[in-house]
Amino acid sequence: MFRGRFEHTIDSKGRVSIPSRFREVLQSQYGSEDLVLTVYDSCIVAFPWEEWRRWEERLKELPLLRAETKRFFRYFLSGAVDCRIDDHGRLLIPAQMRVQAQLKKEVVLVGMLKGFEIWDKELWQEEMLRCQEMFDKVSETIAEWMGF
Q1: CB hemisphere CA count around 44 (13 angstroms)
Q2: How far is CA 50 from CA 14, 34, 35, 103, in A?
Q3: Residue 31: HSE in the Cβ half-sphere, 13 Å Cα cutoff
Q4: Residue 33 carries which DSSP code?
Q5: Which DSSP letter does residue 28 get?
Q6: Contact in structure between 124 and 108 (CB atoms under 8 Å)
Q7: How far is CA 14 from the centre of its chain?
Q8: Contact between 73 and 136 (Cβ < 8 Å)
Q9: Cα(55)–Cα(136) distance, integer angstroms
Q10: What residue spans of 6-120 are helical by DSSP H?
Q11: Domain 5-121 architecture
Q12: Across 55-73, average pLDDT
């Protein structure tokens, strides 16, 4: 599973180094460094190809005639791209995706169990403040969902 936070920089070509811990997870659990990237919630989300395929299987069950489904697909799925980590452990993030997620030079890679997120460092710090403000309430909700 992907966990932890790592700060990195994006080079002039749009490449970011993927933490060795994340690459180890990709190799040991998925046997591949193939990822699917898309923009969601002010950041880029990266899923191992196998996890993305599972998402797609579940998404196929959604009613296509509902406006919410179409909008979700148009935003989340239409922007998805296949990527592969290069031999130097870097991921090339497409230019349009970097613009959409407002990525500048400094980024934070955040483990999210089945995948990871890539945030602009300033936006990440803002998100962390929001998370801290709501943490007690969110923790209670998660505890309820988990039956604690």
Answers
A1: 31
A2: 25, 9, 9, 26
A3: 1
A4: -
A5: I
A6: yes
A7: 16
A8: no
A9: 29
A10: 20-25, 49-59, 67-72, 95-100
A11: 3-Layer(aba) Sandwich (3.40)
A12: 92
For residue 138, name the pLDDT band (cuts at 50, 70, 90): confident
Instruction: Tell me the mean pLDDT in the region 89-116.
Output: 97
> Which of 104, 105, 91 has its CA nearest to residue 45?
91
Any idea where the domains of the chain sit in the sequence? 5-121
DSSP 87: T
Give the helix/strand (H/E) hosting 43. Answer: strand 43-48
Q: Which amino acid is at 40?
A: Y
> Coil, strand, or helix at residue 78?
coil
The predicted pLDDT at position 100 comes to 95
Single out the residue of 81, 86, 73, 84 nearest to residue 98, CA to CA: 81
DSSP H stretches of helix in the chain: 20-25, 49-59, 67-72, 95-100, 121-145
30 in Cβ contact with 138 (< 8 Å): no
At residue 80, what is the residue type?
A
Contacts of 108 (CB under 8 A, 6+ apart): 5, 6, 7, 8, 118, 119, 120, 121, 124
